[in-house]
Amino acid sequence: MVEGKVVLVTGAGGGIGRDIALLMARHGARVVVNDVGASVSGEGADVGPAQKVVDEIVSAGGEAVANTDSVSDPAAAARMVEQAVQQYGRIDCVVNNAGILRDRFFHKMTAEEFDAVLKVHLYGSFYVSRAAANYFKEQESGCFVHMTSTSGLIGNLGQANYNAAKLGIMALSKSIALDMEKFNVRSNCVAPFAYSRMIGAIPTDTPEQQARVEKIKQMTPAKIAPICVYLASDQAAEVNAQVFAVRNNEIFLMSQPRPIRSVQRSEGWTPESLAEHGMPALKGSFIPVERSGEVFTWDPV
Question: Which position among 88, 123, 162, 195 bears the catalytic label?
Fold first, then answer.
């Protein structure tokens, strides 16, 4: 599917990123395996995880190289893209998968906790994508696969930083798709359901939370990789600016914000008329205050 392509996968030392890197290589891609080797909260660093995945790819007959730069630093993001070009002569796909968690209820969240998560998820996706964009423009081809989350698309408790970053990534992807379509560059999002270190940080204080985590454990990271390989392939040439969710063996095309219902008064609105007429007319179409788990209520197939 991706024979001869050069793919950079960030956060690929374990979990979802590892399985994406392995399957990309199995389908013929040359892979730059990026991972700083940090904890789920982003602390510490270890070159081991990225190199271990490279060793797996090479032992299976593929081509790969390790990178331990941080996506949260624009210069480091540029270096990882340069490494791909120097090592393999080009770059064809960026999979923005790197992420950390600093979960905290909003009224307790610190500025540092908010900033750290946005730096890795949202800024990191921008930095790496921006570094690759010039190469994609010059060669008039390329694609981005960004990891978003239903926590951002729908909502989740205690993750204002993560949710803001993940919803921002959807808008970033759409902007890239719009701005670079004329250069034959595509940008899409994947919202993965899979058990990994990231999911391991979900609270399990209540029976309901424990049951939710047990369901998620059934969904392995390997289930996320196929759609990423497909999106990186030439067979996905007409797939652009879309958001997919992958939940075990289910693949969803997710909605994007569009008008639902409108009200109009020829004389214009006042606060009073909005209270008496406008909001009551719209109320039946209000979006509920829900979490992701309250929308995806059935067991994964």
Answer: 162
